[in-house]
Amino acid sequence: MQGPASRDVLAILAAALLLVWAMPLLIAPHSLTVLIIYGMLGLSLGLVWGFGGILCFGQAAFFGLGAYTYAVAAINIGESTLPLVLAVLVPALLALALGAMIFYGRLTDVYLGIITLVVTLILFRFVSSTAGPQYVIGRARLGGFNGIPGFQTLNIPGDPGAYIWGDALYYLCAAALLAVFLLVTWLLRSDFGRIAVGIRENETRMALMGYDVAARKTLLFAIGAAIAGLAGALFACWAEIVTPALFSLPQSAEIIIWCIAGGLGTRFGPVLGAAGLAWLKFMLGQQSLIDNTLVMGAILVLFVLFLPRGLLPAAAGVWGAGLARFRRPVRARLRHPVREETDHG
Amino acid sequence: MDLSVVILVEMLYAVALLILVSAGLAVVFGMMKVINLAHGEFMMMGGYVTITAAGLGVNVFLAMLVIAPLAAGLAGLLVERLVIRHLYGRLVDTMLATWGLSMLFVGLASMIFGNTTTSISTPIPGFAIGAYQVNGYNFFVILVAAALAAGLWLVLSRTRAGLIARGTMQSPQMAAALGYSPARVYMATFFCGSALAGLAGAVLAPLVGLVPAWGGTYIAKAFITVIAGGPSLVAGLLSGAGAFGLVSQAFTFAFSPVIGEVALLVLAVILLRLMPRGITGRFFRGRL
């Protein structure tokens, strides 16, 4: 994080406007919408893992829970504003409870991974088995493996007849991603964000300095879950159906792959990784020569082995090295060589 | 009376199943502190090898107990040489890399065998206890699991190879100073772990319809059994499998298989919260 905040925000706004205008020329807005939603999902884990050092194996649980909350609430309420709010709140509350259990118990690394993985599995198993008519929340049948179709999709607040779909949904999702991105930017510039990064770097030291590590990690975890929940609700509106596959392990794995490939510790990396790899998956889905899962698995293995920092930081490093060579004579006279900072998206 | 015998057999079977499924993971995690998320896929390989070999006319038990473990072990050897050995000591990275490997294997299997169910019939017929029909194959599974646990303990505590392996895990430098190459010991351990996974997959293959993603259904169970079991290998394996097998089976009888499964997972979360170092981290300290 460097440079004044206003310049950062202006750069984000300019880049976002350019992308929102230019991308529909390349990819159909319908596909682009889901890429944006995945980008938001990637950003949620990118925040929690990249800046908080919390490797959550079950980010898909919050995504799926957001989608299901939206679907169930939308059927019962028949209007989309409150369900959207609930879809953010419910995953955040679950994450608060789960996070409190994990972080106040000082579980880290493997144990954290397992618990989040297991919670995802519990949700998946439970929701998959709710095919019977006795599994009803209000007027919404959970529908087991077939999921919930036919709920009220996004509408203009207060007017259930005015659906937001097609191009309008694309612009809405883009705006939502921009808002979340700016929120994350602000968060990381605030004291909370800087202390979170400090905790990632050295938990013991931050605790000795008097910060409540467990509370801060729990809160960050919940914020990540809230973003994932929002992404889930938007996904539900895009797909117009929610199924247990949203909770599944392959979905969780994919989110992790997005973050690794895009670049941890950056804001833009996970978004780029998510959109790029999801698009790659679409492309691969159109041929039958190579299996999709195989490619994703290979990407994960190769990145962990050869490029563990991800594309964006590596590219920034190359760019920075090139720039440094170009500038070196001037810099050397002024002060000591500056280590290139890769901690900004 | 008959019912209680049947329930007893079912309980034993549930525990045996967990022992079988987790043994390979326990060896790899317990000895090397490597979390192998591709464990389920080594099982899947063992299953496919068994079915393919049996289809070619090889004796089913030979395919199951010899060929499948060897094949999975060799695949494991390859994986260790190409991927795992670069990541020793980086716990999270190995988890991620092996998760990638698991996806890669699933993709490979669906390209070779197709995304359909493959199966063979169980080689042992069922029989009746009183009014209840019991699957004879369940006894075979229990037998294999018992032999496995006993064998594991014997090898680790009574043979020179087990001594070398344990020594290397405690202090690689010291083992190297005494002339044993840690790299080789790790390689052999990983081979054994994958072979055990292959064995588990092979033994379970006749009980299920095999699909490429089959291994994924067991990985979480194996994972939590090993972690909840804790640091000591055999005792941890037995206590973890015992606790989870009994609880899940009790809930299955009382409610439904899905509730049993969910109860197992919930118990795992609670156990980890209460005993983060596992059951043998608190009880049976220092045992093997």
In words, what does this structure look like?
With 345 residues, chain A is mainly α. Chain A contains 13 helices and 4 strands. Chain A has helices at residues 5-26, 29-51, 59-77, 81-104, 109-128, 167-189, 191-201, 203-208, 213-239, 249-262, 268-285, 292-306, 311-334, and strands at 136-137, 140-141, 148-149, 241-242. In chain A, the strands form 2 sheets. In chain A, strands 1-2 form a two-stranded antiparallel ribbon. In chain A, strand 1 and strand 2 (140-141) form a beta hairpin. In chain A, helix 1 runs antiparallel to helix 6 (167-189), helix 2 runs antiparallel to helix 9 (213-239) and helix 10 crosses helix 12 (292-306). The radius of gyration of chain A is 21 Å and the shape is globular. Chain A starts with a helix and ends in an 11-residue tail after the last helix. Chain B is mainly α and 288 residues long. In chain B, 75% of the residues lie in helices and 2% in strands. Chain B contains 12 helices and 2 strands; from the N terminus they run ααααββαααααααα. A two-stranded antiparallel ribbon of chain B has the order 1-2. In chain B, a hairpin with a 2-residue loop joins strand 1 (127-129) and strand 2 (132-134). In chain B, helix 1 runs antiparallel to helix 10 (233-254), helix 2 (39-55) packs antiparallel against helix 3 and helix 2 packs parallel to helix 4 (91-113). The longest helix of chain B has 31 residues, at 2-32. Chain B is globular and about 65 Å long. Chain A binds chain B through residues 55, 101-102, 105-107, 109-111, 113-115, 117-119, 121-122, 125-126, 129, 249-250, 253, 256-257, 260, 290-302, 304-305, 308, and chain B through 35, 83, 86-87, 91-93, 95-97, 99-108, 110-111, 216, 220, 223-224, 227, 258, 261-262, 265-266, 268-269, 272-273, 276.
